[in-house]
Design goal:
This protein is mostly beta strands. Helices cover 0% and strands 56% of the residues. Strands 1-5-4-3-2 form a five-stranded mixed β-sheet, with no helix packed on it. The chain has a four-stranded antiparallel β-sheet with strand order 6-7-8-9, with no helix packed on it. A four-stranded antiparallel β-sheet has the order 10-11-12-13, with no helix packed on it. Strand 20 and strand 21 form a beta hairpin. It starts with a strand and ends in a 13-residue tail after the last strand. The N terminus is likely disordered.
Length: 337
Amino acid sequence: LYLKISLILQTLQSSWVLFSFILSYTLGSVISDSLVLKVLDNLNVAEKATMPYLEIIETFYNLGAISDLKLRKKSKESANSDFSVLTTSYEKKKNQLNLLQSGITITIEGSIEIPHIDNLFIATLNPSDYTLAAITTPFNTITLRIPKNGSQVTGITIDGLDYEKKTLLIAAVGTKNLVQVTKERIILLEISEMSDEKFNFKGELAPSEGYILFTELFNDQLYIVTSRNRLIVYDLSKNSIQEKGKADISFKPCYFTINEDHIAIAGWNQEDVYFYDRAKLVEVGKLSLKMLGVKSLKFTTLGTSNNTYLFCGFIDGMLRAIKYSYIKDGNSHNIAN
């Protein structure tokens, strides 16, 4: 199987890739030419193989330079078309949050100006009738209430959240819990049965293995990488924060990503991406990138069922898509590209 990418690499200085729904993606650019793309399966008779490729559906020049993208679905059971895209963008000194609504085409439904946006997180909990958007700036964290049916954005204050520290992640755990990760600690809250704007404090934890560099939530399990080169996993599914396992990383990590079977970790001054078994937390293989400067990593299947791709973003603006395969064989998964 092959991957054909046409036109996508003509987008200058691509910054963010959002896997919007099963077969569509949004590529955010810092040069104000962001794209909405669709994955198509084309049968190549000569090769006798399916070749997923990307087709540009729409180009946005009016959003400003994209600094972050997130998907908002009205519920986890929503149809693929029942979604909105939230973007943060900037133009010179102007920063704003944009709400793009799906339909025949994606249109800008609403926007709000917020200075100095660093990052964007969203969470949808039941039985709330809104999406919680959390925006981080160099100075604080701002939480916003976006109705599921509508575009009016209002501020909301959630007791128990740390609004002063640098936030690395705010996400929904299951349908009723909310987790916040800062560089110093992990905070777990539960939505109140009395009011969908009130939360009950369930616990917090400060890792003893250094401060938190990176974090990702996968299947209600929280993965963190610390300043002491440790990979630690916490189970959040039981309404508490329980350590599930940890592993040493033999290099200084710069980014990581997770899928069903693997954790991929890139390191400063490393030309390889190292793969760990997600369940056992043991190193099982590596892929050679033959260049330094990884800024971001993302797993995707590109809508296919038999292949896994690793998207690697580099500091110089290059975006590389690597198709890889593996066979589990003890402590080696025979990973190859």
